[in-house]
Amino acid sequence: MLIQSDPDRYQKLEKLAGMATDDVLSRPGKGNDYAAVRAPYSRAEKNPAPGVYKASMPNGKTINLFRVMFTDFCKMDCHFCPNSHWVPRKRFSFKVDELARTFHEMEKRHTVAGLFLSSGVAGSGSKTTEKLIKVVDLVRNKYDFKGYIHLKVMPGTEYEYVEQAYRLGTRLSVNLETPTVEGMRRLSKMKDLERDMLSQMHWMDGLLRQNNPGGAVGQVTQLVVGAADESDWDVYQRMVQLYGQWNFKRVYYNPFIPIRYTPLEDHEPTPIWRTNRLYQVDWLKRIYRYEDDEIRHAYDPAGFLSLEDDPKTVIALSNVDRFPLDINEAGKPDLLRVPGIGPTSAERILQQRESHKIDTWRDLQAMGVVKRRASPFVSFPGSAATPAKQLKLELFKERPSEPAPVKVSTPRPEATTAAPCGQVRSCSGCALYGAPGHPGYRGLMAA
Known about the structure:
This protein is an alpha/beta fold. It contains 15 helices and eleven strands.
């Protein structure tokens, strides 16, 4: 492994800000096209500086974050990761005061308003996390920054450093990467899911429940979907634990993309539609409050979600006897089970019913209801209700039931889309790695 001796601060920034896009909290795109998920600043001349990332806030507003890695050196052997020791390329690292000063200068120029700090594991997880803590300590106490800081805690970090991170960060995260213990054993010989990630999450949960003034306010994590050939049901079961047991704010799902030189370079990439479906199920559980036995209907016998239909529609079709619902009588939980009706439109329906009955599609569409999706599932005065069996057979052209396909491990075809440099797979050693249009870059932007 090659280590550049003394690059200047701007060389480090250009490289380590670019590499931080691999540690991404992604949002779903459309279809199977990774390019559907656009970079926050998709053209270089529009990006205020390397590492500036426009992130969405829960209130719908955006914030410019400085997303950067402390170092891209990593001793770990994760089979999917461009920062793992498998990849032969030059590595870079900031000094503690250097990175803190860089952020301070950008914040004073109003280029950024928050920090997202990550790193490769250089040495032990505890030693690396300690360096990140020192950076954040300078940012907080020397430069008096009171704003948002998302601080990564490295796998295997000891409790004392997790506690220090809690006292300095706004949001904490450990990358889980895969939902199962068996999956982690396939992806790394050096990491143990329970010892190196789940233990740290458990500690964070205990600290967060203390509600100490000035402490962090939540934790999140991310999964690399498809790298360990896990099922969608495996992902769901872990997601339920994280939200229910440890009160996670979010779980993010990244589609696996093969990286040259790694053991999984010939593994087929995960299509973006699969992560779209996982986000949809996540939303049904977290926002719509679906029960586990309801959501189970969205999965086939092998534990995978449908490609053709979204989970909410699949669940509705598996319970056709409860439809159509009377739009003027149904309660909010029932309204939320109707495809095409979300939390906002459900609230508007309930408010409208307080003054008069709903009797036209114009009214419903004005409230945000999607007629194309909702019409087979609701009724109101003057509407033609569709019998349940016809609903499934005619309107949705029910496909004949077939045995669920069994996933068999077969040689994976190589990607055929070439990067600007001519490579057919994403290559973290390439000089263009991280540039817009490169396969290693597309599809990894966060919401």
